[in-house]
Amino acid sequence: MVTAYRTERTTRVRCWGTRVGPAPALSSSRRTQPRGTRNLTRMAVNKVMISGAPASGKGTQCEMLSGNYNLTHISAGDLLRAEVGSGTANGLKAKEFMDAGKLVPNEIVVTMVKDRLNQPDALAGWLLDGYPRSKDQADALEEANIRPEVFLLLEVPDSILVDRVVGRRLDPETGKIYHLKYAPPESEEVAERLIQRSDDTEEKVVPRLETHNSNVAAILDSYSDVLVRINGDQAKDKVYADIQEALKSL
Ligand code: AP5
């Protein structure tokens, strides 16, 4: 059964940076497998945005979507963590805002994402994760003539999100997202190398949620014509199935 619905008519290259564990071995593009090596599923859309509160499952769904569809996954959070990890001036400034659970200023984020969208691997199709997060960012994309064919919003009650945040763990070698309870590692070997993001604490999730909740309405206004709401409070495979159904029906 499809629980996704349209309101009107309506790929995350995860990287790292802000973390408590060791540095990853792979770069931000490691999840984007070379074209031709994947079992690609054809779909009619090739410009997809995915949004939702912290830990609503954006990255988890993007792992599955980018693995099965010919879309380059671009995550604003991952691009920022890579910048932080590189220790650049922008990275140092971004870290202050990320640690506070606030939006990183546009002068850092807007150009960073636009440049990434213009790289060759993104020209054929992209899955933009966690961007835009404000009206200004949406307007900047409009000005650059960048518009999604579909805007997916993962809806999960706030009460569920804290548990997801504090239990999240990441594999620095593969980039895969785990959860101690809901998606535990497959082996002891993987379990031993998992790391936790430094903003994944009960304390830091509160301002992150507030930031999301105070900005989301403006974004939805910008994309109301392509908005598809997905119930993210279900098993991840069910969420994925609903997204597939929604994409198929476009
Ligand atoms: P970002 O990295 O984008 O963080 P976020 O939006 O808070 O989202 P998360 O990465 O925390 O969660 P997710 O939705 O990807 O969930 P996941 O799939 O991992 O941004 C970080 C910071 O960067 C921001 O706070 C901000 O400071 C800055 N920033 C980012 N974008 C910006 C922008 N555009 N402008 C300005 N600043 C920006 O899942 C979470 C956990 O739940 C995992 O453990 C997973 O296994 C589990 N899980 C997933 N799905 C399910 C399910 N269906 N059932 C049970 N468990 C599940």
Automatic annotation (TrEMBL):
Its main location: plastid. GO terms for molecular function: AMP kinase activity; ATP binding. The keyword Plastid applies. It catalyses: AMP + ATP = 2 ADP. CDD domains: ADK. Its EC number is 2.7.4.3. It is found in: Plastid, Chloroplast. It comes from the Eukaryota. PROSITE patterns: ADENYLATE_KINASE. The keyword Chloroplast applies. InterPro entries: Adenyl_kin_sub, Adenylat/UMP-CMP_kin, Adenylat_kinase_CS, P-loop_NTPase. Keywords: ATP-binding, Chloroplast, Kinase, Nucleotide-binding, Plastid, Transferase. GO terms for cellular component: chloroplast. Belongs to the adenylate kinase family. This is adenylate kinase. It comes from Chloropicon primus.
